[in-house]
Design goal:
Elements lengths: L1 H29 L2 H5 L3 E3 L2 E3 L9 E5 L11 H11 L3 E7 L9 H21 L2 E7 L10 H14 L6 E4 L10 H18 L4 E4 L2 H4 L2 H6 L10 E8 L5 H12 L4 E7 L11 H13 L4 E6 L27 H11 L1
Parallel strand pairs: 3-4, 3-10, 4-5, 5-6, 6-7, 7-8, 8-9, 9-10
Antiparallel strand pairs: 1-2
Helix pairs in contact: 3-4, 5-6
The protein binds ligand IDC.
Ligand IDC binds next to β8 and β10.
């Protein structure tokens, strides 16, 4: 009898050791950044982790998911995590320009891409922004019904994920006023928070997400504003001291700001890289512990492309010489 008990105990011990070892191996393999930091919260003007400690998300933005899907894969994300210290990927899903709103088939394709990219991020222990990338459709109210159903679906699928952030309108532009954006956000925020009450939501601001002063003067009403941040985007060769001051005063007034897109060249995504202005932005980002995503993960022949146009590998088997000037500047920001 005693021998049989000992026998069972040793089998038990064997399996405990086996499973513990497997768990440790898997944890190491997948990375544990996002599970260690867990659900994010906005406290005052800062992004904080589940323990209330300030957290900076540092990431790469994809180019349009429908234009450069080949770079949106696990190996590529892992490269940025392992070599540049990225802890987040932003998935730019254009709504116009042949993107999500163009056909049912395109919607299905893009949703499948998001699903795959989210599971890669989750496996890699990275945070992930799902970006409703309005651009030529300048006013988010023009497709509010489609946005509602998209975010209802996403937040229901990902309600148990703590690594997803929702960016509800990339860059409102044209005649879109802050009131329009607020009217839109006040419809979309409750849809997401109904499924996932703590989700962090990024709200665009007027003039291609630059007018954070307007948001600071008239923020989203407090009962809806839990875990809301406001986006500021910059292109270093176009946007300089004036926008930097705008950011600093909005932040000083308590507005939580997230730089969900930026690059080093001009606002067309092309033209000369402005290293001096980029470095001035990087100092500001560092001093204020701001979260950011660099535009963009592709090898298009334009200066904002992170990879050189001659780089053919798409799956993260890269070296420094595969990256453009923008790519290497972004690396310097992430690794400094
Ligand atoms: C640009 C891409 C470019 C593409 C164009 C489509 O870099 O390859 O042809 O969109 O209109 C933004 C936008 C972002 C732009 C980028 C550069 O969020 O979609 O990407 N930019 O123009 N805001 C400021 C600059």
């Amino acid at each position: 009898m005693k021998n049989r008990i000992l026998h069972f105990l040793s089998i038990g011990l064997f399996f405990t050791i086996l499973f513990t070892t497997a768990a440790v191996t898997k944890d190491h393999y997948t990375g544990s950044f996002a599970s260690t930091h867990g659900a994010l919260h906005v406290v005052g003007a800062d992004l904080c982790d589940q323990n209330g400690d300030k957290l900076q998300l540092k990431g790469i933005s994809t180019h349009g998911l429908h234009w450069f899907p080949q770079f949106v894969n696990r190996g590529s994300f892992q490269y940025f995590r392992d070599h540049w210290g990225a802890n987040m990927i932003r998935l730019a899903m254009y709504t116009g320009e042949g993107g999500y709103l163009s056909s049912q088939e395109q919607q299905n394709k893009l949703k499948k891409q998001i699903q795959d990219a989210v599971s890669s991020c989750t496996d890699l222990g990275m945070y992930c922004i799902i970006d409703w990338h309005i651009l030529s459709d300048g006013n988010p109210l023009s497709h509010v019904a489609e946005a509602r159903s998209f975010f209802a679906e996403m937040s229901s699928v990902y309600k148990d994920h703590t690594n997803i952030l929702y960016e509800i309108c990339n860059e409102p532009n044209g005649n879109t006023s802050w009131n329009d954006i607020k009217a839109y956000a006040e419809q979309i925020i409750p849809v997401i928070h109904a499924n996932d009450p703590d989700a962090v939501i990024l709200v665009g601001t007027p003039t291609w997400s630059q007018a954070v002063d307007q948001a600071a003067a008239d923020p989203i009403r407090p009962e809806l504003a839990t875990n809301i941040m406001y986006t500021l985007h910059f292109y270093a060769a176009t946007h300089k001291d004036e926008l930097r001051s705008k950011l600093l005063s909005a932040r000083a007034s308590g507005l939580p700001i997230f730089i969900s897109e930026f690059s080093t060249c001009d606002a067309s995504g092309n033209g000369a890289v402005d290293t001096a202005s980029a470095n001035a932005w990087f100092r500001l980002i560092k001093e204020n512990n701001l979260s950011y995503a660099g535009w963009s993960l592709c090898n298009k022949n334009e200066s904002s492309a992170i990879l050189k146009s001659s780089t053919q590998n798409t799956s993260g088997n890269w070296n420094d010489h595969d990256f453009s000037e923008t790519g290497l500047l972004l690396k310097s920001l992430m690794t400094q």
